[in-house]
User: Fold these one by one.
Assistant:
Number 1:
Amino acid sequence: MTLCFRLSWFYAKQMVKSVLYIGTYIFMATMLISRFIIRQHDPFGMTDYGNFVGEMTLIIQAAMLLFMVFFYKLFSDEYRFGANLLFAGSLRITALKIAALFANHLLFLALLTGLQAALVWQFYRAWGIPFSSLYTETVSYIAAYWLLPLVFAFFLGIFTALLFGKNRLSFAWMMVVWLAIGPMNTELFSRYFHHISFSDIHSLFYIGPLNMDDVFRDVIGYNVSLSTYMKMLFWIIASMMAVWAILWKTARTTKEKAAIIMGATLLLAGDAWLFPHIFTGSKLVFSYADLNQENVYYQTHYPTIKPSTLHYSIERYDIQLDAKSGVNAKVKVTLRQIRGNTLSFVLYHHFALKQVTDQTRKRLPFIQQGDVITVKRSSIRPADEWTFEYKMNDSAQVPVSPHYLFLPNDFSWVPTRADHAPFAFASDHSGPVSVSMQPSQPIRYTLSFHGTAPFYTNLPSRSDGTYEGAVSGGITAVAGMFLKEKIGPWEIVHPADWPGVADVWPAFERYLRRIHNEMVQMFDLKDAELPTKIVLLAPHGEQRSVYSSDHLLLQIDTPYSLRSQEGTLMYLPEIITEGLLWSGKHSSKQKEAFQALLTRWFQQQLGLPYSGGDLTFDLALSVDSSDGKTQQVLRQMSGEYERLSDEKKRQFLALWYKQIREGADGSWEKTVQLIRIVQEGQK
């Protein structure tokens, strides 16, 4: 024990005196503080503070390499000058030296990494971010992606020293290992790793985030899970095993060799236990490969739903969500006006249906094919109550776990009466595009949630902890990392990393009301009141809005303040108008061109910057056609439109919208003709 303490004290002095070792910590702290200063004086007003810690990824990568070099040099220098020969019992002394050095490194890492975590906390507090799980999850992220790679660097440096000694090849070896396994490879070989799903064995070879600018998502939190820690521990234990195994050359007795074999076996057993856990439990929303699989799925799967199986109506849903061990749903559906013995429902294909029972608890035969469930019944009653029990599995498109849920009101997270899938493939998007599943008629809902994550739904809360209400347009259920704030009559749900929402809300509210009021008058939208419950969450980086009778899901993916004209408000007209005018409608070239003109009109009226470029270019981009004739008509249309006065532009847009909704002849020539009719005052 005395020898171990002396070795620790000796190495502690060596490490403190080392310009390379202490300098690395100073370098990390300096770069962190510089990030604080840059953010404080950011001319664009960025506020995505959840992704702030990801900005240190390159610094951690550099620190990992520097620590590898330091420990390699320290150990190889001792062997070079024969310091190991000063002690009897080479294996025991070498093991004690490594243990003492490792204990010192862990102590320094814990203190200085803890100090950096405290600085990040103080930075959050200075910017007015309310205390929430964001703070504790930030510490978890720092532990996973800042601290553990630097622990890994220690054993890599020691192993290199024991393997090569004082040899120039050692530096080439360290560079290869650093590039192959270290966090740097996700930056250098991003195209390769973006095609690897989290369940693929090749994902073992990256220990850093796939994108340092995207380490935090609304609701879901940081890209940290148990599998993240398992992966890092796997490599740390593997490097420990390599160090222990290479000490074989210092073993002189049978007892020492037996100790090496036993130690290596125990470490190998530890890695064998960790290995299967590395590929389960990852947050799939961060996986580019898994999201692409969803895209391919909807590119190749076209569900067929027979109209004859949709002869029924849904009067009520009674929903139970159990998020304690996995996420399981039990949904009782009250059916009315049933005609026929076979009924079809739409339910997201990643949700595994276990059973369907009727009101007598009799099991009903069903077939689940992708997003479509077909149920057969023997009853001839025009009304019935069926209970669907299913497991909600996590996916890249729909985040579902005991720690987070994002189930918007236009998505089929309960069995829904519809003739289409919840998502559709779109070539101009990086992932599947949601297709509204909103019911138009009012439906009564009751909802109970059993879980530990913070939960929100738009339904009124009852005294027994359940939620109940009648809603047209569906209900939203969200659990995870977000905050709820009361601002005057408004109930705002927003990401946990947004500071000072109450301060910036008045400016945002002013534009929101103006756009909504103008839309109601311009397009004669009856019963389109602006809800006072606003959900401002966008875990997928989407820009869209979904209206319900009692809340508005406003997905604004912005790293800027809500009152930022260049970063947020300029996109608000496009998002609001899309949700108000086209709920449940499929995309078309006429619709996309209309949206481009309407968005530009609102931006001009509100004095906002343009979200695009030249109007002709925006029209061509929205239509995305290579046909020369179409491009020529679009240029003509743009010129004719630009010559209209503001009031006539308003009149034309209202008439064009009515024409598109009524399914009239949608030729571009007819649209140009409509512009001329408005110009001449004939309508």
Note: The first helix runs from residue 2 to 17.
Number 2:
Amino acid sequence: MTAALAGLRVVEVALGVPDVGAGLATHLPGRLLADLGAHVTHVRSRRRSTLDAGVESARAWDRGKEVVEVDDEELAAAAGTVAGLARDADVLLLAGAEERLERQGLTWAALSAANPRLVVVRLRPSATARGPLPDLELLVAARAGLLTQIRGSRPGPVFADLAIGAAGAGLSATVGALAALYERESTGRGGWAETSLYDGLQALLPMILGRVEHHSPTTALLWRDQGPAESLCYRCADGEYVQLWFGAAGAYEAFLEHMGEPPSERGYNADLMSGAMVERGRRWAAAFATREREHWLASLAGQRFRCEPVWRPGEALRDAHVREIGLAVPHEDPERGRLTVLGPAIRVTAAGNSAAAPVPAGGRLLEGVRVLDLSAYLAGPIAPLVLAELGADVVKVEPTTGDAHRSMQPMFAAGQRGKRALALDLKSPDAAEVLDRLFRWSDVVHSNARVGLAERLGYDETTVRAANPDVVHSFASGFGESGPRALLPSNDQLMQALAGIEAAQAGEGRPPTYLVWGAVDVTGGWIAAVGILAGLYARRRGGGGQSVASSLLGAGLTLKSGAFLAGDDVVVGPRVDAAETGYGAAYRIYRAGDGAWFALAAPDAAAWSALRRVVGVEGLSECPPPLRTAVAGPQPDELLLESAFAARPAGEWVRELSAAGVPVEPVVEADRSAFVAGVVDDPVNRQRGRVTDHVWGDLGRVEQPCLPPRLGPEPQPRAAAGIPGLGEHTAEVLALLGFDAGQRAALAANGSVAGG
């Protein structure tokens, strides 16, 4: 069976960009495209950043790619190698400073003159109203205020281990490449897309980056308190941790009964939001501490509530379920030998007639593409929103009582903008006819229900494809569609536990840290969007109907995909220290004499040498010390720098170090509201059209970042501003499907549909 991207040639270029700081941005696009069948050549600098010394993440990220090294000290020669590869490529992904790329002639205009069908995707250095930033995740997070959006073990900002900006940039770059390729099949011409780490941060944090004029209690919980006080994560007798989740109906009550706890008078959500669960949590912590983790996993298995292990990065690759569903695969490394690395997070397969006629030309990007969104919560709706941002017409179907997240405004707003809303009772006798017409109308049908639910409600792939054989059918499951965990409910927090995100963020010897950002959910949406775009591209080339499969588990593991197994040993990237300040002397945050913090990222020997000159402290190493990749205490250089920086205010250090060429950035300390304001009110964000605002009924004005990337050269369509009311477009959509006024009235009268 032909792969969706078979025959495509992709060149992925990262010149002078360290893996520590931007690795997911510069490696993930090629990884995803290669897994979908493209031939990928990864071009990197022969001289590596000193931050990458001893960091082996690229061994996993570059599985199956052809790797080419260039001497980027000879900039003209390196640019010549890239330009030569671009002449025969379909997609060119470029990352690096302007002096290495644009000033050497590596621009879309110049490259497309030699190859008019070329799609160029640029990872640009980030820019805000305060000026440009290099491709270093830590500095972007510091400026954005992200480091104070983590509930750490001490007051003040905390180093962010999860590379949100790099992951978001890598995913949006991949979407940009595929959207431009889809359009190219219509026009015959290439185009360009661009994103950045700062854009990537906005791509993965829509749940916490929207501003609503009139806040609800749910908003207050997520904004002011950065999540519930009780994280439901407990240490067992062997020092290992488990993560609980009570999201399924009746799960909380079942757990209370199982643990011999008195029943709740007000229910799960009320106990969680009021803090009443904290006292219960103390008792649960004492109970879990009496037995080892394996006891609890066995004892609590098969219940309505969920109990999963909190693993460190890479440990999931040992798991039987992860291996069975293909998320752990062998890889022969030329130096390390046989490794186990993350397998494909998306699978796109031809499901119809492979000799089907190509799809006719449409409008700009996805204009003319019709998407049926049958998904819920946060992970599901993000994929159709990404498609809407590219011009697709999206119809969102939700129950007549409303989507479960309508009462949780931050989550609902994050994924529902720019869609038409149809309220339909899927259990009603007339639902099958409405769905059948929707299936026939659609180019894409996307859902994310638990395995088996779609079959019961009539929108499983077999039913959809019987009505429309050439549809692109996308199903985003929790744990995959097969394997021991397939039927289990899932959520963002459980995936953070399994993927190693909670453990890695915590720092050495600290309890796991839950990041209340929705980032795994949103990553799942972006990954599904990548698969859908690949399916649309294959279909437009005559591949017929396509099946797209992704999972929330795959999304979580993608965010930690630089970890791998060598034999049974886990090989990870840099580790956060116990003080939660960073990875080592050259990449961390420091507290200055005035109590303010600043971030320092010295990517090479020159920057470290300049740092030594400015600080003027005896005993600092002549060469940058490698970052921590194993359990270890503070580096001697860290202690020397901590002492030196404590002598003067942060502003003075930032000015002097910046003037000397050392990458530093003040850490913006902000509560959740100020963090949001720093993004949505940034003049550069506004000027570049990165922010949309609209009125959301009684909740008032809503301001949200638009999802990247930006595409050209023609103007890009965007999702319409506004979040639809319940059933706001029901009558409009039913009329579009051919239901006359009498039929529409009958559907409303018998409760099959709701809204106008």
Note: The chain has a mean pLDDT of 94.
Number 3:
Amino acid sequence: MPVTTSRRYREVLKVFSKHGLSHILEGAGLRHAKNRSTTGIHLRQAFEELGTTFIKFGQILSTRNDLLPEKITSELEKLQTGVPPLPFEDIKAVIEEELGPISTVFTHLDETPLAAASIGQVHKARTTEGKEVAVKVRRPGITDQVELDLKILSRLSHRLVHFPKMEETRQIEDLYYEFSETLRTELNFLKEAEHMETISHNFHSWPKVHIPSIDRKRTTSRVLTMKYMEGLRFAEFSNQHKNDPDFIETRKAIAEFSAEVLLKMVFEDGVFHADIHQGNFLLDENNELIILDFGMIGTIDYHTRQKLMNIALSFSSKDAELLTDALLDITLESGQGAEMDALTTDVKRLISRTSGRALEDIPLGEVLGDLFTILRRYHLRLPPTAALLFKTLIMAEGTGRAIDPGFELQSTLEKQSRHWMKERYRPDHLGKDMWRYTKLWKDIGKETPLMIKRVMRKGMNIGVEPKGWEKIIAHFHIMVNRIAITLLLSSFIIALSLLLSVFRPDEGYQLLSWFLWSLFFLSLILGIYLITSILRSKNKFKNKTR
């Protein structure tokens, strides 16, 4: 029997309540949780219990260190999408619905999956042409479940941001829209096939990077067929070769090369693999890199790439003012905005903590963690893609350390940034920039006289949009509501008092008399409760202003 929206919504609320997370839904917020140290644990457990959509949303939230405390994001990083595999008959049914009878497309299809995840599972097969392939099949019914859960998440995120104390979750509604689009894309295997072909094309001149080719005849939105590629995880490779005399140099080269591959995706191509973990980065028998699973992809535009380069270069040059400007340039202001002098002072402290250490000895995760803390302190938030990228870089550093424990991505990032900065000032790139700016000024020159004419004819209205008044407006609404309830309650009590003073029921109307007296006493109790709550809020306000 299909689950209705209201039933699923009740189930979600029940799970949140079971894990002691009612304060999040009631507006107390993550910052104000009574036991904040365990909020992340309970949030992770609730997401795991609620399934695919909530797990994926938790994974996205884990990238937002600029919005949420580290204790919460570090717990959400533990969310895994691995699930028990579906029966082979269910998988076979999906393949035959999409491609026709199994015997017409594959001569062999392994019943035991190579991998099973929340969206799909992968089986090894052999095509009728004799090629070995990996077949990724979307779980039946998962699309309907995701769409239902997205409706619930939309309702919850909209509810969260309308509470006055939810400072850290103000941007969750915006994050939800980004996430819903990403998840719907991940459900469509044709999109994943496009990602694989795009990134494969970007690495056509890198012979040591291998991305499985797509079998388009056997690929649909629910079935993705690709070349089967086999390799070792970095940790497995380390264990197998730890006694080789040249292993130290080999592992350093592999770790640095894998970092260069990711950085090329980011700074040169603007399309990057956003799920960098050991299961997706493998080494073949020639120590060449195999990249798998392109369901989660990040895209980053040219201007944002330049801003990221500025952050890397200003940090490596230990220039606090430049780093502050670079941070403000890439972030989106919210709330009260940033106090420039105080922000620069905090950035200087960050730089001074690392100034006595060699660049290769500074973990990127440590630097980004400190930067995220500063961003939250000054109510600055990152664009979703930049936040995802920073988290991907931290994951990439961890993946590199699986083969080389001494690997630091910061050193490679700094070297590559300098290389790309030189590329930026090549004559052909400068020519493109000059053409872009010339066109911009030409357009401004055309539009300005027209704008001036319109202003002279019709006049000009200047509007002011107040910011930071959300809490005041919310409290004003509460105050007005209390006044309205007080007036209604007072009128009700007076009306009942007058009625009871003149009403003399006969024996047949005793029940009505009891009913009216019950309403009268209930109204008195509500009045006392209202007075008590007003006094409590008044005391809280006094305490806050001391």
Note: Residues 473-543 form one domain.
